[in-house]
Automatic annotation (TrEMBL):
The organism's place on the tree of life at top rank: Eukaryota
UniProt cross-references to Gene3D superfamilies, sorted A to Z: Glutaredoxin
GO cellular component assignments: mitochondrion; nucleus
Catalytic activity: a hydroperoxy polyunsaturated fatty acid + 2 glutathione = a hydroxy polyunsaturated fatty acid + glutathione disulfide + H2O; (13S)-hydroperoxy-(9Z,11E)-octadecadienoate + 2 glutathione = (13S)-hydroxy-(9Z,11E)-octadecadienoate + glutathione disulfide + H2O
Name of the molecule in the record: phospholipid-hydroperoxide glutathione peroxidase
Enzyme class label: oxidoreductase
Subunit: Monomer. Has a tendency to form higher mass oligomers. Interacts with FUNDC1; this interaction promotes GPX4 recruitment into mitochondria through TOM/TIM complex where it is degraded by mitophagy.
Organism this protein belongs to: Oreochromis aureus
């Protein structure tokens, strides 16, 4: 398993709230265009259990590559990372689900882990197709994910709020400060 996985490979859903280890698949592959929020999608955990993203209703989410450091910084506010490994970028994630899970354990990664998916092309996971098609989920040079670490900030209603590029850090963004979003919305929703 590539040691770059925690830092470069995968596509990850960071969530404010919730726990568990998960994998990916949409309930109705052909329906992704009509979805109104992420709550209409389901995913399989790394152990093969089907999980409805409805479970994350009311939580702020970031869909991004694995950010164990960000998770550690904001876990007390309910931040959770859901990792979707992806091997579409230079073959950086060739391992099996079992190898990926074992590797993540070695780094004491405490985020939800999904099985490997594709984020671009005909076989892209429906959730990723949907996020890229949302008004605030569109990319600068087209909607394809250009490389690992493209991130999507999802509000508590399951809507895409912002898309960050591979090198953008949501925790220090000058246009949309992630820490303020967590603090403001955690008070507003009286969740924490």
């Amino acid at each position: 398993v590539s040691t770059m996985w925690l830092w470069r490979s995968s596509a990850v859903l960071s969530l404010v709230g919730s726990r568990g280890v998960v994998r990916s698949m949409c309930a109705q592959v052909g329906d992704w265009r009509s979805a109104k929020s992420i709550y209409e999608f389901s995913a399989k955990d790394i152990d093969g259990n089907e999980v409805s993203l409805e479970k994350y209703r009311g939580y702020v989410c970031i869909i991004v590559n694995v950010l164990a450091e960000m998770h550690a910084s904001y876990a007390e506010k309910g931040l959770r990372i859901l990792g979707f490994p992806c091997n579409q970028f230079g073959g950086q994630e060739p391992g099996t689900e079992a190898e990926i899970k074992e590797f993540a354990k070695g780094y004491n990664a405490e985020f939800d882990l999904f099985s490997k998916i594709e984020v671009n092309g005909d076989n892209a996971h429906p959730l990723w197709k949907w996020m890229k098609a949302q008004p605030k989920g569109k990319g600068t040079l087209g909607n394809n994910i250009k490389w690992n670490f493209t991130k999507f900030l999802i509000n508590r209603e399951g809507q895409v709020v912002k898309r960050y590029g591979p090198t953008d850090d949501p925790s220090v963004s000058h246009n949309y400060t992630f820490p303020q979003y967590i603090l403001v919305h955690s008070v507003e929703y009286s969740t924490f």
